[in-house]
Design a protein that fits this description.
heterodimer; A: Rossmann fold; Rossmann fold; seven-stranded mixed beta sheet; six-stranded mixed beta sheet; 14 helices; 13 strands; B: mainly alpha; two-stranded antiparallel sheet; 4 strands; 77% helix
Amino acid sequence: MLLLLRSVRRDKSVRSKKENHPDTLSNKLTRREALSTGAKIGIAAGVAAVVAGVGGYFGGLASVPAKEVVKTIKETVTQTVGGAGIFGKGYRFSYVTHGGEENVFWNSVMLGMKEAAQLVGADAVMLRPKKEGDLAQESANFESTIAERPDGIVVPIAYLELLPLVKKATDAGIPVIVHNIDAPNAEDRIKAGGLSFIGQDLDFAGYFLAKTLSKYFKPGGHALILIEGPGQVWAEERAKGIIQFLKEYNTTYERLDVGFDLALVESRTSAYLQANPQTTAVFSVGYTAPIAGKVLQSMGRKPGEVAIGTFDLVPLVIDGIKSGYTTIAIDQQPYLQGFLPIIQLTLMKKYGLSAWDVNTGNAIVDQSNVSKVEELSKKGYR
Amino acid sequence: MTLNARKLTIALLQRKEISITIISLITISFFYSLQPKFLSPANVDVLLKITPELGIPALGVTLLMIAGEFDLSVGSVFAFTSLFTTLLLEMGVNPWLSVLLALGACSLIGLSHGLITVKTGIPSFITTLGGLLVWRGVALVITGGLPKFFAMPTEFTNIMAGKITTFLHAQMLWFFGIAIIFLLILERHKFGNWIYSTGGKKDAARAMGINTDKVKIICFILSSFTAGLGGIIQSARLNQALPNQGEGLEFDAIAAAVIGGTSLFGGAGTIIGTIIGEYLSRIIENGLIIIRAPSYYFRLYIGIVVIIAVIINLYIQRRAIRIRG
């Protein structure tokens, strides 16, 4: 910084010397002057920035203008929620997830989070990685959040490597609630400090999906299982449940890694179904199985020829069920997974109540009730 | 004295890092004034810890870009190297040897990219775009798309990514160690001059007797090698080798280099600029979390910063040339 200040001073002297020699006043000099002014502005901006920073340090946390700025920014630029309620006013909660920005499922969770935060008047924010399931980014987000010290952290255990961070947050005195995905062994989560689990029993949900769908295809067939998140706990647990039932039901199966990029899902599923026309059932551990329905439709197959079972009520799934190609979907009610943690954390903070586990559901959606849930789904509630 | 002052000003303005330094200071002050916890020891420690593994590949990419070529495959090589290591581990190879073999393999990948680019004359953009797909594909094939446990001895993990004290992590030593070596090569060694002239005026460089093909191939190898090393460090830190790790790293690395003043057309760029550029990316990412802004905004800000940094760079360079003339 000293160096910068000195160079400003010296710069002045360069210019004043030139001004003393009117015979050298030319275009070149004007440019030089312009340069020196430009440089000064740049350097001054740097210096001002440093001064502002130092000022902020000594001014401490409670400097009013800064708070005002934060408020304005939050209200105008960000989606951070500061609500009208007073029950949990002043609490700040952070959600850390692996659900990438393109994952629509997490938008419902986020809606639940926002509305609960509005209801109690708390401030809540959801941190999502740029790429679906990016562990490095998620754990970096987690660590940054711990450094920011919110009043509660909500996180799905998509990777076991997140458990040490749950412990780190707990040790720092920040309550942690696990939602959406529990550790495969709940004991591990409890040991790390995760106070409750709000979500779906994934292994069982996979089994439940396959068993419910088995009404629509005969034993002895072949099933395709689309894996959107290979190696991630949620995907593997559901796949495990599906496979367990398929074995009991005497059905052969193949896993196909697809991801959430629908174009990619379509091309891979299309290739697979062209090569394996004997397939009698298609599952997805995420929400992409309806793409298989579209592929079958374009191949000239009729609805119901191949049973299709999927998870999560995103628009793609609802359209699929309405078209008749997608047979059933299991809804795990993501809105609740966003909504309930805020309620629990607020009660814990305010009255010292304990957290409690919630199974957010094994709700079956098929042609009989799809129109009922469609309206709610459009608004992001189902 | 005035002459010295003028020289100093020119020297300062000629440093490509000056604009990025100013932008960084403004950014830090911005986040700090909104939320003082931004500069809390815990948060600074987080920033220092997560930056090196993504910064090391950016160093290699910078050298290659100065030599006038691109490497879009670094993200895939980043994942490939870690997964190849776990494959060797599963085959019962000694852990230390596994890492050396994997780093050797990723150097060979760089060599192949270099040879293909130089010998066939196709743009490196195409060669390494192919590499991006091929090596991610190989990584997926050898793992079946599943994450692998990165089962290394504790000593190894400590050497790659262990915590030494607060504010000092092993991966920082790797980052700065490699940065210093590259800095010395670029600014003190004749090979550095060769890199600059290969990227700047290729024909002139050839006329001077520089084997530009060889220079480029070596830079390709260094780019792949640093990408692989970054991957190993990340895996050691997370105890996991993931098929999706490092996705998008190629653009992060190029963005860091460009923010730091490296020219897209070769012939210009600095290591210090890339280091600051890399830290600035992470500072923006982390700062947005600290001020509780949703993560959506990261791309938006980094995009703006890339453009502003390059405009300011150009502006200052032109002015510096004029003041000198």
